[in-house]
Amino acid sequence: MEEGTAKYADRPFVLPLLDPTVILPSNVIDEVKSLPETRVSIDANNKRRFFGQYTLMGTKSPELLSAIKQDLHRNVSNLLTEMMEEIRVTTDSLISLTSESPVKSLLVYESMLRYITLVTGRIIVGLPLSRNEAWVGSAINYAVESMKAGHQLRTYPVALRPWVAPFLSAVRRLKDHQSKIMTILHETVLQERLSPANSTKVDETQGRLASWLIQHYRPMSNKDVSEWNLCKDHILALFAGIHIATNAVTQVLLDLAARPEYQQQLLEEIDSATSESENNTLSLGMIAKMSKLDSFIQESLRVNPPGGVVTLMRETTAPFRPSCGPLIPKGTLIAFSNNRFDMATRTKADVDHFDAFRFDRERSSGGSKHHLLTPSPDSLTWGYGIHACPGRSFAATEIKVIVIHLLTHFHLRLKGGKERPPNQSFDFQIMPDMSAEIEFSSRTNLGNH
Ligand code: HEM
Question: Which residues of this UniProt protein bind heme (predicted)?
């Protein structure tokens, strides 16, 4: 990507990904960001790149989008207490320190996968289901098997895929997770919610996503809502919410552990913002005061983009001629470079340089007003334009609450005081090193147990 953007600063070029993709120059991003599905399609891209016929990718419903964009977004503040509780319980189960064992080393990615899955589940389906291990396993592994299924399917010619798919091991495991999620949801949430005879008031902390979806599917009448649609929407929400957020929070923690000098500064900011808090509760207002934390996370995700080397991945659904030319035929996969790899106007040293508080400085000097949550051509973590991530206020809050909780309780250090391990990359994806470990030691005196 770096070679391409340096060489073709204002022209498209083809990046040889598993699905070759036309990379457009960043100066035409405004021409693409809000094009309708009839011109370029995010769903067609997802369906094709991730084998949506088998994995369901690219088949999200408008109702799911409304539930995330409106209900989840509007409720982030009300959900904070539950998010914090889930993070505290998960921390207690993963990191319990005593004077005899004052340091705990954890595989960061694996541990964060658990935090994010439990917090996401707590919000969308609620307790006790969110901590049920069968649910947690299928919620995590659905996406893992989807990726594997894609790799297996790719090895067969297109015409043969529908015939071989039912026999491929990953496709079978994928279907297995799909039916487990359906059965669990049916028994715990959907049967009750969809029953016309049900007149009892439902517990609002359970089955939240189902309630939001049902309201969008039947705004007025008692029209039938299909259980399959509701399950599919849950699966796609888990798919969209778990893995990319795990990738992101892992990168942030690795950056913090590799740069201990920032831990104290962030802690001071957290202490000052929460000084008036009662019972250690956080509010969105307090979190909003933590501008250095916001900047640190924004910089960590700029340098280690959880979405990979590309952003705004689309398939053209009609011939498209960007102002940089030439005419791009219908059915072409297109994308833009993520900021870190875009060499059109910057040097490699520039984009690689980790400057934790650059966004904070820019904001306080009256320069850019952009925060972590604001999609812009300079900050493409969440995409940009009409499809910019609708779950971003929830995801950013979840990441911040995890970081605040861990920082206030522990010193973080890369295992053995080593250097930050380099990221791993595959196709367009960038992942943190899965074997990286962080040592957690207590900030308070542990006493004797
Ligand atoms: C750190 C975590 C996350 C990151 C970095 C992230 C990033 C992204 C990106 C880059 C896109 C594509 C935007 C585009 O192509 O223009 C996207 C789309 C999307 N994200 Fe996220 N996301 C995160 C978490 C979440 C969560 C927690 C949810 C839901 C609970 C979610 C739901 C979605 C959905 C539904 C879309 C598709 C939007 C559409 O098609 O219009 N994401 N996200």
Answer: 389
